[in-house]
Amino acid sequence: MSRARSTTHEAEGAAPAMVRIVEVWKRRGHNLVLKGINFSARRGEVVCLLGPSGAGKSTLLRCINALEENDSGIVYVDGVMIGCRERAGRLYRLSERQLCRQRADIGMVFQNFNLFPHLTVLQNIIDAPLRVKREPRSVVVERARDLLARVGLADRGDNYPRHLSGGQQQRVAIARALAMQPKVMLFDEPTSALDPLLVAEVLETMKQLAASGMTMIVVTHELSFAREVADTVAVMTDGQIIESGPAERVLSEPSDPRARAFLGRTLPSG
């Protein structure tokens, strides 16, 4: 699948960047978490971020949607500066209300499902479009029901999260993010909290989303998913991207010795 998607990009020429990260640095205490990250994801591209725990992958995702404030550098989504604005040659942090409006364009799915336990599945999905975007309830409910059908949970709208399996809850979380009609979807190890038997159903939902043309940046340890779905793979370690490029090349013949060592430990032999 990754080969076919990449071929499409080549045929169309260089697609515009949906996400562009320019020299992003992030310090947490005395620890440099991100060290001058430069990276971009084209419109409709699937990027998988790989690397050991503590490499900075999740922090990078959280900087993309301004859940964390980077110390320097700029993140753009669809050409819009995220988390700050420029005035008189200086950058200023946006207000929380302005940040919420920007985040409406950036869907994010976390390791833990973060569903509201006191709301039904349908109520979880329609909550943000009603509150943040103030869309008509009838429109939002119809979209939510369509999304539930899309993730294979059409009959679960009236259930509460506690009545669902972990895999089902994560699919609801994906539907909830899609209900905001985002321009890009960020996934932070979306299967890491699941029983192995439930991983496949979530990955299948993500594969279908990728096939629909959604721009996706995925932090994952599921190497088979990266090999099958990703257009681009980037390997991070110690706050830096040490290798990036077409998925097939990076996963099969990484040039950086640190990437080779990591992938050699992670990928099955043969």
Radius of gyration: 19 Å
* Average of the residue pLDDT scores: 90
Order of neighbouring strands in the sheet with most strands? 8-9-10-3-11-12
Tell me the total number of β-strands.
12
- Helix and strand succession? HEEEHEEEEHEHHHEHEHEEHH
Shape label: globular
End-to-end distance, in Å? 20 Å
The percent range for strand residues is 25-35%
How many H/I helices? 10
Q: What are the defining features of this structure?
A:
single chain; 270 residues; 6-stranded mixed beta sheet; alpha/beta; 4-stranded antiparallel beta sheet; globular; 10 helices; disordered N terminus
Give a description of the structure.
There is one protein chain. The protein has 270 residues and is an alpha/beta fold. The chain contains ten helices and twelve strands. The strands form three sheets. A six-stranded mixed sheet has the order 8-9-10-3-11-12, sandwiched between helices. A four-stranded antiparallel sheet has the order 2-1-4-5, covered by helices on one side. Helix 5 (137-150) crosses helix 6. It is globular and about 50 Å long. The two termini are 20 Å apart.
